[in-house]
Each structure stands twice: as C-alpha cells, then as structure tokens.
Hints:
single chain; ten-stranded mixed beta sheet; two-stranded antiparallel ribbon; 15% strand
Amino acid sequence: MNTAEKQKVALSSIHDFAAKLRQPDTLPRVKEYVKWLASGENRNPEAMPDFAPVSINLDLTTACNYACDHCVDKEILNLNIRYDHQRLLDSLQLMAEKGLKSVIVIGGGEPTTYPKFEQTIRFMKKLGLQVSIVSNGAGNKKIASIADCLDKGDWVRLSLDSGTDPTFQAMHLPKIKITLEEICAHIPDIKAVNSSFKVGFSYIVTWQGAHIFDENIVENMHEMAEAAALAKQNQFDYIAFKPFLTRAEINNAEIIDLEASDKRYQKIVKVISEQLDKASALEDGSFKIHRTTNLKMLLTGEKSTDNIGQPQRCHMQFFRQILSPLGTYNCPVYRNQPHGQLGEKDGYADAKGYAGVRDTCTSMIHDFNATKECENVTCLYNHVNWWFEDLIKNPEKLDALIPHTPEEEDYFL
Length: 413
Ligand code: SF4
C-alpha cells in the first residue's frame, strides 16, 4: 500500500461509516463481503453475500411543492412517475428480510407529498427499521401524525435555510401558502407527541454571487443567528450549518463556490464567523449548533483533498443504495443516471427482481470504476471504501476487527 493509501486507511478507522458497519449486527456481513472479494474475481452473482443493503435512501416521490433556487434535483422533479404502492411495500419487506436496517426518507421530491406517506412510515417501523425523514417543512402536520411511531435514534430534519420569512420565500419559492414561522410553530406539537427522537433545522449558508446551473442563489448568511434563535424558540434540538455547494462544470462534482483567493472571501468569512459566534451563544443542554467539516474548512481557508480520490471499486454500492420512483441506484450522486442504475423501481419487490439487482450489483462492484467516474467527487464514503480495500488486500486483518457497540445503534449510511 502506498503512503496515500495508508493515510486514507488510517483516517477510515475513525470514520463513522466504518464504525457503523462494525456494529454487532452488520460485522458478520462485512466479513462475508470481504472474504468474497478477497477470494479473487468472482462474477457469479450467487457467490455475492445474500443481503440487501444495510441502509437505503428512499425517494418516495419526485413531486415537490417548492421550487428552491439551490435544489440539486431540479432535473428530476415533478416527473409524474410513481411507485405502485403495494410493490413499494413488498420491496421494503423483502429488503428487511434480507438485512435492511435503516431508511432515510429523502430527496428527489418532498416526501410528505406522497399520498401514502403515513402508511409507508408506519409499515417501515413495524418492520423494525430505523427511519429518518428529510423534509421541506410543508408537511409538518403529517410528520406530527406519525411522530408516535418513531423511536430514539430515528430523526427528522427540515431544510429551512433562513432566519426570516422574506428570505425563506425568496429561496424556496413555495407553491403553497406557508411561512417560515408557521413551519417552525409545528415543532412543539411534534415534540408533544413524542420527544424521544431529534428534530433538526438545516441551514445551507449562501452568499452574494453564489450560483448553480447559471442561477444566482439568494444570500442568507446574515440570518444565521436569527435562524438559530428561531430554531431554539421552537424546540428544535439543533441547527446544522453547511456551506452552499455548486456543481463543477468539468465533472458535475459538488464543490464549494468560493475560494480563499476570491476578492469576496474575507468579507464573507467575517460575516459567517460573526453569525456563528452569535448562534453559538444560544447553545445549551437541549439546543446545539452543528457546523459541517467543509464549513469549518471554508472559514480557515484550507483546501482539502480529503474524500477526493476514490479506489477503483466502490464497496458502498453493496451496503447503501437508493430506491426512487425512477429506479434503484448505486449512489445518491447517480440518482437517475443510467450508469448508476442497479434495477427498476420495484427491483426488490420479488425474488426474481432481487436476483436481477444482485446480478447487476455484482457486475457494478467489478466494473463501475469509481476512480474514474467519481474523480474529484467529494465522497463521504471515501474513507470506508479505502478501509474495505485494505481488508480485501489483507483479509487476515478481519480476525482483529472488534465489534463496535455505540451507546445508541445507528445504521444510517
Ligand atoms: S461518489 Fe462515492 S459512494 Fe458514490 S459511487 Fe462514487 S465512490 Fe461510490
């Protein structure tokens, strides 16, 4: 292993995803998977360990009732392509029987607009799955209606990105009549039903001149502290700040739209730092401020090569997949991309479909070249992919793998 590889592996030992996969319920699966690939190239799909992914992103719908300026899924919104609901439930059931542990109900559209949202969430909880929901806040009544079935360890996160209603309206362009204050006012109702799971306020920090797909993004960096106060006042458990990311023209990778050499940089960083200081003053035992690593790096002017440079094989396509009305995919980055497709939207609904997805997944693990396809993609799974590479090259290390037992089980990948 060269030095760069060693560094990546060293980082992986402290990376969350590797730790999550070492939990007692999933460690045997990791070992089986590593032994399969360590035994040499084997393209027989029946030889691949007989499991569904540990975790999926579930896009319930492509419909959305907002038209956010910063949406990365614009091209796939409101396509009027739907699940057959019973086939969706059959897929979830089969995956749970084959080892699925968690579902992040997210993207592509607004999940609460799915007509059978409540039934689907309750069905997944009855299957014993961990469930999280990422929503735009317009369906908080529906979230309150299923709050009783969520558990500690499940979570809900609302993408709100503003501290005042005029900014909220300008950024999110809701197609329905709704205000930021109305959305936030539902959180105490949700908490009154069940306070065991966390509810977060998500805030993408934007600045003047930020743009994506030739569209200028509304600036919100002056409202970070105001948003934190609003979140705290309405019983959110935390607010999470992350920088706006744009798409690189060269390869569509998500990148920060601001460099330290930019003449706007000093001014923008000063404002964001001041806002973060004010927001931090609001932290206490029941309310936290989270900053993502890339926001911290933006503020220090560091340029990271971390999470860039993938191994040839992406192992996470076996452990984490995307189920959307458009099909089954290997990665959130390749939602709706033919070269990332593992199967149809009902690929997991019956034994025949399951065999088909396994067949494609076996080929993809061998043939999807992440080094090339994901060149320069800032991939959250970079460390865990390199960790697998190391184990496959050195399978004797499997015996020394110690199960990781966190205070709270967490299978979200
Ligand atoms: S971006 Fe990362 S997780 Fe997605 S396919 Fe590429 S290497 Fe795998």
